[in-house]
From TrEMBL:
The keyword Hydrolase is assigned to this record: yes
Enzyme class: hydrolase
Protein name: HAD family hydrolase
InterPro entries: HAD-like_sf, HAD-SF_hydro_IA, HAD_sf, PGP-like_dom2
Source organism of the structure: Pelomonas margarita
Domain of life: Bacteria
NCBIfam families reported in the protein's UniProt record: HAD-SF-IA-v3
EC number: 3.1.3.-
UniProt keyword Metal-binding, yes or no: no
Record GO terms (molecular function): hydrolase activity
The entry's keywords: Hydrolase
Gene3D superfamilies per record: HAD superfamily/HAD-like (3.40.50.1000), Putative phosphatase, domain 2 (1.10.150.240)
Coiled coil ranges: none
Length: 206
């Protein structure tokens, strides 16, 4: 079995509401406000941010577009865009899970919607080549989840039939897209529940 990890919210911390509350304390006082602002800022990863995710526009252009669309000052928007790498910290429980899966003999890959500047940051900061056999960043291939093409690319790059791939992601739409291609998949909520799921599938010992 080849196990494929999403990155944001699974391997690396990504909680937009608390992230924005930390970066924009003058605008956001509660996590509820943070969630509301995040839905406008990131557009559920469509729109401007979706183009950034796919590597179709760069950081300067996404800042310009978000500022023009929302009326937020460009400098404030740029502060958020520049702060994302500090948010993307490895989740300790998932790192242990990765090491345990490798020790159990499984081959691991990643499939991540990630703008190219952040992909570069993660590649330079963390031992991705030690954790994973290979992987795909959306910003480098100009495709993104839940589109079918990036899953097709993954099947070819990972050298596996769909039924041989198990996908772990925190977005239901991405899980549905994987299942539609006959991948195995389950929704990630935290490392402990993911471990229980992997044990139930007999991919890890209890």
């Amino acid at each position: 079995m080849k196990i494929v990890f999403d990155f944001g919210g699974v391997v690396f911390r990504w909680h937009p509401a608390s992230f924005l509350a930390r970066v924009w304390p003058h605008r956001i006082e509660t996590l509820e406000q943070g969630a509301q602002v995040a839905s406008v800022f990131f557009q559920n990863y469509g729109g401007d941010w979706g183009l950034f995710d796919q590597g179709l526009i760069g950081a300067d252009e996404v800042v310009r577009r978000i500022s023009a669309r929302t009326g937020w000052p460009r400098g404030e928007v740029e502060t958020v865009v520049r702060a994302v790498p500090d948010e993307l910290m490895a989740i300790p429980g998932t790192v242990v899970l990765i090491r345990d899966l490798k020790a159990a003999g499984h081959t691991l890959h990643f499939l991540s919607n990630m703008p190219e500047p952040y992909a570069d940051h993660l590649s330079q900061t963390y031992p991705l080549s030690e954790w994973f056999e290979s992987g795909i960043f959306s910003g480098r291939v100009k495709q993104s989840k839940p589109g079918a093409e990036i899953f097709s690319m993954a099947e070819r790059q990972f050298g596996a039939a769909p039924s041989e791939l198990l996908f772990i992601d925190d977005h239901p739409a991405n899980i549905d897209a994987a299942l539609a291609r006959d991948w195995q998949a389950f929704l990630f909520t935290d490392a402990a529940s993911a471990r229980r799921e992997l044990v139930s599938r007999r991919l890890l010992n209890a």
